[in-house]
């Protein structure tokens, strides 16, 4: 059972009563006449062959209120693209597959490259960005939700709970973030959020004092969740980060673009499990090592935009403060896990904290060395001003691929 506290600067919508999914869906069907809704699924072709995607599609096929499902497909050749279209053919809703590696969408990408507006890095950020472009172009819906495609504990209540706050006619939210706890197989998971993001934000508050942005970021119960939803009016001005700071960067963009009164978070799952990244202690380009680096730089960039002066001495102080704060957090998580009957390797937790403390300092040095580094993909408002027909090009390419 969730608590009911509202202890941050954004609204928290709990799961207080366990309303049935059917009850929520019945209301969403009613609300969909005024607020049509879409679902965005960014995926790799390999995920279609994994254990999660089949059950996800079976659950999605039962949803009665969606106007459209937009599937972004990465790392697929032509044969695999056709296999993906057959894989999703069991969906009764209107759906399209964006073949991001196909000739037609690559042609659109080349046109964007000519004017310096194409995404420069492959990955989830690029996939989501093109899918949002198609969402704007299709003009089918007024709200869109997004979730990962490797969720092993999926059920269709996830999109229902993500979209409900945006679709309800008496609510006033423009952006909704999903949250849950990460535990599976008798273990407490979610290491990057637990051991990096939470203690780093607390340490930043100690070093820098109270900042509205840090209060905002500290309000999210699971800032790294890949599940969120937004209304169409905010999509146009949203910049999508291309690196592994996607979730933190998106929240930062919402802080810039929206009043906190129009942002909420919602409890979307009693338990949540998906694939786990390795720590990659000796490889700064992969796993949790790179994720921690990109997240730290995303926070430093946003703080600089807010007027915070970041120096080498400040970073050294931050590292020391983070390290002590994170070790205290490990104590609490260990005790929480023991009381809940979960396993938690305390030695590994503290070793991960040691790695993250080094990553924070290295990420800060990278920021100071290259303060002009810009991992954000340009928003669609700017892209459309440079190429007014770009959305028509995307729709034409997608429709031709799916014909």
Automatic annotation (TrEMBL):
Major enzyme class: transferase
Q: Which UniProt keywords apply?
A: Glycosyltransferase, Transferase
Q: Does the keyword Glycosyltransferase apply?
A: yes
Whether Transferase counts among this entry's keywords is yes
Tell me which domain of life the UniProt entry assigns to the organism this sequence originates from.
Bacteria
Q: What is its EC number?
A: 2.4.1.266
| Alphabetized GO MF terms | glycosyltransferase activity
Q: What is this protein called?
A: Glucosyl-3-phosphoglycerate synthase
